[in-house]
Design goal:
The chain contains 1 helix and 6 strands, in the order H-E-E-E-E-E-E. It has about 150 residues and is α+β, with helices and mostly antiparallel strands. The strands form 2 sheets. The protein has a 3-stranded antiparallel sheet, with no helix packed on it. Strands 4-3-6 form a 3-stranded antiparallel sheet, with no helix packed on it. A hairpin with a 2-residue loop joins strand 1 and strand 2. The longest helix has 29 residues. The relative contact order is 0.17.
């Protein structure tokens, strides 16, 4: 009973031998699709959640009075030859937004230290940034003459 070939088996009693060629083709196709999808998801995630091209950081702040806050900050960016637009906001003690300021960051070195001051609706306790962008509106550029 040792050496029986597949052809010697009774017909109908056992399954037909399967061809594995087609199954391997589908396996490699599905595996390749998952790898491509993974690379796309990783790329999109890196672009959206990876290192920020412009990184503002508050260095110091000083509450001048109940309606004014002054602060200094550093902006580090990957394209120092381009101007940037940063939006800072002040928070009050109860966590509400007390004021907001849009700040023009001129082209300079990779890192630049700036100072700003803005009015608030109530006494501010801290300053933070929403973020920065290289898309600077025309009204922020220093070369534009004032309108009106």
């Amino acid at each position: 009973m040792g050496d029986t070939a597949v052809a010697d088996r009774p017909i109908g009693r056992y399954e037909k031998p399967r061809r594995t060629g087609r199954r391997r083709w589908w396996y490699w196709t599905i595996l390749a699709a998952f790898v491509v999808a993974g690379v796309i998801v990783a790329y999109v995630g890196y672009e959206n959640l990876g290192a920020t091209p412009i990184d503002p950081e508050v260095s110091t702040y000083n509450v001048i009075d109940d309606h004014t806050i002054a602060f200094s900050f550093t902006v580090t960016r990957n394209h120092p030859d381009q101007a940037a637009d940063c939006i800072a906001y002040a928070l009050s003690a109860d966590g509400d937004e007390a004021g907001r300021e849009e700040i023009y960051v001129p082209p300079s070195g990779t890192s630049i230290q700036l100072n700003s001051r803005f009015q608030t609706d109530k006494r501010a306790t801290t300053v933070e940034f929403y973020g920065c962008s290289y898309q600077v509106p025309a009204y922020l550029t220093k070369s534009m003459p004032p309108s009106g």
